[in-house]
Every structure is written in C-alpha cells, then in structure tokens.
Amino acid sequence: MKIVVCVKQVPDTSDIKWTENNTMVRDGVESIVNPFDEYAIETALRVKEANPGSTLTAVTMGPPQAKDVLKKAIAMGADDAILISDKKFAGSDTQATSRTLAKAIKEKIGDFDLIVCGQFAIDGDTAQTGPSIAKHLDIPQITYTKEVVNSSDSTLVAKREIEEGMQTIEMQLPGLICMVKCDYEPRRAPIKGVMKANRTEIPEFNMEEIGLEPEQVGIKGSPTYVSKAFRPPIREGGEKITADSPKELAEILLSKLKETKVLVS
Amino acid sequence: MDINSYKGICVVAEATSANKLTGVTWELIGAAKQLSEQLNGEEISVILISGNNDVNPLLKEISEAGAQKCYLAQDDKLAAYSTEYYAKIICDIVNAKKPSIMLFGASTTGRDLAPRISSELNTGLTADCTELGINEKGLLAATRPTFGGNLMATILCKSRPQMATVRPKVLARPEAHSSNNLEIEKINVKLDGVPLRTKILELAKSLSTACVTIEAAEINVSGGRGMKTAENFKILEDLAQALGGAVGASRAAVDAGWRGHCDQVGQTGKTVTPKLYIACGISGAIQHLAGMNASETIVAINKDPDAAIFDIATYGLVGDLFEVVPALTEAIKKEQLTAAI
Ligand SMILES: Cc1cc2nc3c(=O)[nH]c(=O)nc-3n(C[C@H](O)[C@H](O)[C@H](O)COP(=O)(O)OP(=O)(O)OC[C@H]3O[C@@H](n4cnc5c(N)ncnc54)[C@H](O)[C@@H]3O)c2cc1C
C-alpha cells in the first residue's frame, strides 16, 4: 500500500502569553507536532506494518522550519517526506490549505491508497482540512477514527467514535481517515530512526511546482477571513469556601446551590 | 458568483434514533430566526434528510421551532447517514435554492459533512462557532474559540453560501410555537451514479454509553489525578447518580487508564456545557478549562487552596475530595435534591 500522512506544526497552546493590550505573544512559543497527528503517524505505521511492502510518506504545508515535524515522522518510521512551502500560502484558510495539500499529494505522491490525518489541529481546531482534502481528491472519508481494525489495498475497516457509540465502518480505498486520540500511544522514535531522519533530504515544493495559481492559494484562495480576534472574557471566580469539617463544607455548598436554584428538592 | 442571488438562512436538521430533532437543530433554527430579523426577514428553511420512515413528528418540531420552509429528501438509501449521499443531496438543494447562510450542528455528523459540502461548493466554512451575528454590511459574523480557547476569532466569508457549524448547547433553544405554517417541498432524490464507498457494519451502543451521556448530561462530575485510582471513581459515580448526572475526567485521569478517552473533558476531549460541573481533584489547566468553562455553575473540590481551578469556579471547596465528595452525596440523598429543569 502507498500511505500518506498529513502532519502540521502547531504552537504549544498550553504556553500562550498575552501582551498588555491583549494580543497574543507569538514569538518564543514552542512549536510541536499537532498531538492528533502523532496518532495519525502511529496509525499509519500500524497499517504499514500490517501490509508488508507498504510505504509511508509524510507531508506538511508550512514554513521551512516545519521540516521538523516531517523529520519526526521519519524518525518514527515514515519512509520519506515532502514539504509544501511558499510565502504565497500565507493566510490560507481550511479551503485553501486542503486544496494545496490535495494538489501536492496528487502531483508529487500520486497513486496513493490511504491518507491519514489528525482529526483536529490544536491551534485552529476546525476539523475541516481532512474531509476537504478527501473532497478535492474525490475519495471517501472516515472521520473521528479511533482505530483501524483491518486493512488491505482495497478496503479498510475502522472504528469511529460518534455520539451514539462506537461505529464500525468499511471504506473502499483509496480513502482518507482522520484520527482522534487512540487507545494506544504514539511510539517513541528509536535512535536509528532519529539518525535516519537527520540524514534524509526532504524535498520542498512551491506553488508553481505543484501546479496551482496565485488565486487558488493563501489569502486570495481563501473564502473566509478573520475580521476580529480578541481575548475571551475571563470567567470570574466566585467564592472559596472553607469549613471545619467536610460535612459542613457540603452543607454550605448545598445551601448555595439551592439558593441559586441550581438544585431543587 | 453573483452574491446577490443568494438569500435566506438554511439549517441542516439532524434527528436522533428516537425520531426527534437534536437539541442543536432547535438551537440553529432559533439562531436563524434572530439572523433573519437582522436581514429584513429573509426566509428560514430547513433541510431534512431521512429514510422512508414517518417524518411527521420531525416536521412538527421544525415548524414549532420557527422554520418557514422545509426541503424534505426521503429515500431508503438515506435511512443511515453517509457522507457521500448526504453531501450530494445538500449540494443539489443549495445549487437550486441558493441560501445565503447555511448552518450545521457541530456534531460528528455536521463536522463530517459540512467541509465536504463547502469544498464541493467552493465556499467558506467556519467551524464550531459559539456566536452568530450579522455585521454592518449584512454579512454573517461567525465567532469561535481557537488556540485551545485562548483566543476568540470572528470570521467573515467572501463567497456564498456563508457556512458555519455551531457548537451544541451554546446558543439558546427557542420556545416552541404551534401557530406556524410550515411549507414542505419534497426533493426529488437523485443518487444514480453517486458512489457510496463506505458501509456501516456495526454500531456498538453499549460500549460507550458514556460518550453519549457526558455531553448530554445537565450535571457533570469529573475527576482528575487527585482521584489516585480507577476504583476511587466509585465515589464520583455515586455522586453523579444521586444527581442524575454523568462522570467525566481530566486527561491526567484518562492517561493513567482510570477512565476511557470518551470521558475526557477538555481541548483534546469533549466540550461540555452542563448546568452544574463538579471538578474533583482537577488542577484547572487551560486545556481542561477549554472543555468546561462555559458550564453554568462550576464547583471545584481541591485540597490545594492555590489550584487554578478556583480562579474560575463559582464555588470552590478547599478540602480533601475523599471526605468532601461522600459527605456531599450523603447530604444530597438525605435532602433528595435534583437538578432544576
Ligand atoms: C496539547 C495538550 C492537550 C491537552 N488536552 C487536555 C484535555 O483535553 N483535557 C485535560 O483535562 N487536560 C488536557 N491536557 C493536559 C493538561 O495540561 C493537564 O496536564 C491536565 O488537565 C491535568 O490533569 P489534572 O488536573 O487531573 O491533574 P493535576 O494537574 O495533577 O491536578 C491534580 C489536582 O488534584 C488535587 N488533589 C490531589 N489529591 C487530592 C485530594 N485528595 N483531594 C482534593 N484534591 C486533590 C491536587 O491539588 C491537584 O490540583 C492537555 C495538554 C496538552 C499539552
């Protein structure tokens, strides 16, 4: 099988600082592999291992330093990787991003069987890029995938976590899956893998090389734009209650919850 | 694209297995009414896709919620949700009817379907919105949290329809009115030649009932690393049961294997907005708060008086959860307290 995994470099959102005028400080924020993409890499590797002779290519769209996440994918076990990078991509929304990634996969990787994405990126949190890539490539999709149960070069069976429970679904390949957090953890890169990643040349392609026009990418190719960004109102804490005994604590709380009609008898 | 030829607000309905509209469908129709008022009364329509079962209860609800028109697509092939068939039906309706705004629930189905449609129609889609409005130019202003809840962004769209998925249980549910006259337009379902490349093999409901309850529950009792073992969650189960609520967990508790991932509340788990959220032994990391800080009332039980969770809790109880939680359960049972409806 020919497998592709899409990964994204994201700022560590646990580390956000603010300036005095409430704008986000972006400098010095650490970059990490989007956590859901780590599950995507792990799952892609498991599919690869279950189907001997398969290959795994990692792809990202981003600035030159986004090569770091591709190196990580290779260190974990991907065979190779490509970086899609161009200043013209700046300001892309999910529509432009998915168009760009889909075109790059088509032009530079070709006849793939399976594309694996993370369900969300923790910065944008849209969950739209995966399904949109699938549409641009006219292939079926499985979102909210928890586990790949079975795979061959023609079909894949996966478990999906949805509101009603756990759905088992079969998809004809080529197709795309989006991974949520799995019950297994992403593997650590072995030393040998890290060394391989350091040796591997990662080819880089720009807009023209993947065959897109300026109106199809970046701000121009994006139907949506941010008109305003602001810091959310910070929820005010209420009162802190201390008491001599747990029983008393419970009683004080319950009288408050009754008073505010959160609980009734 | 002639933007001016697009008019009206269209909601894509979702039904439960009990043949009722989902809560978020009601909320979307309520939002559509408010948007319509700001757009000189543009039409509020609903798309209902269904198998050949009795849709009358659903149509009644759609009318009661305040929609004026319903596009009804019925076919045996549409009995279960499939991305490819549903996307095709909706794209055909949009191309024919040209609504200016399209709203979906940010459910797993809505988030599976909407991006597929926006890419087919080559238009913009804003994900998981928590606020909708009309700006001074008459455009849909869709506001949503990003960066793990650290930043709010208001997004506008240059093309039509302006699409959004909307987070459940954030917008108000409209009151039901029985006086409406709903106009129903049956859609001629054309699926010949449309590929269906996925097949549902099974739905295991029992396996993960928690996945359902945690988001739907009006009361949520969640435990974190402070619970120390999986067995200790029994005291939270007892409290939740006494209140008719559900049990959730922080990521630390999930990573320790004490609870399943479908119980996880937070940025990489579920977003919950219950009437009452009780956080037990949870420190209050920003990623956890992202999943629960829109709860109406928040109670935190933590032995560390400086825990960050106290900064946002409506009521913060400083104490040992292993003593406070059982005391609370006992008092609730004694007084027979339940959640106010
Ligand atoms: C990318 C990313 C995504 C993440 N997503 C999520 C997410 O979705 N959800 C999530 O929850 N976290 C998430 N996290 C993790 C988050 O940063 C915290 O590590 C996690 O929430 C901590 O869980 P906790 O509060 O249970 O544990 P801790 O931070 O260890 O807190 C335990 C608390 O229990 C208290 N305690 C201990 N014993 C007792 C006792 N006997 N009685 C009373 N109190 C007691 C302690 O005082 C302490 O405050 C994410 C992190 C990253 C980097």
Overall pLDDT score of chain B: 93
Largest sheet of chain B: 7 strands, parallel
Sheet with the most strands, sense and barrel status of chain A: 9 strands, mixed
How many runs of DSSP E, i.e. beta strands of chain A? 16
Q: Which two protein chains have the largest interface (Cβ within 8 Å of the partner's Cβ), and how many residues from each?
A: A-B, 87 and 98 residues
Rounded to the nearest angstrom, the radius of gyration of chain A is 22 Å
In angstroms, what separates the terminal alpha carbons of chain B?
47 Å
* Number of self-contained structural domains of chain B: 2
Helicity of chain B, as a percent range:
25-40%
Number of helices of chain A: 7
String of helices and strands of chain A: EEEEEHEHEHEHEEEEHEHEEHE
The named CATH superfamily of the largest domain in chain B: HUPs
Count of strand segments of chain B: 17
- Which architecture of the largest domain in chain B per CATH? 3-Layer(aba) Sandwich
Specify the structural class of chain A.
alpha/beta
Beta-strand residue percentage of chain A: 25-35%
> Which regions of chain A contain 5 or more consecutive residues with pLDDT less than 50?
none
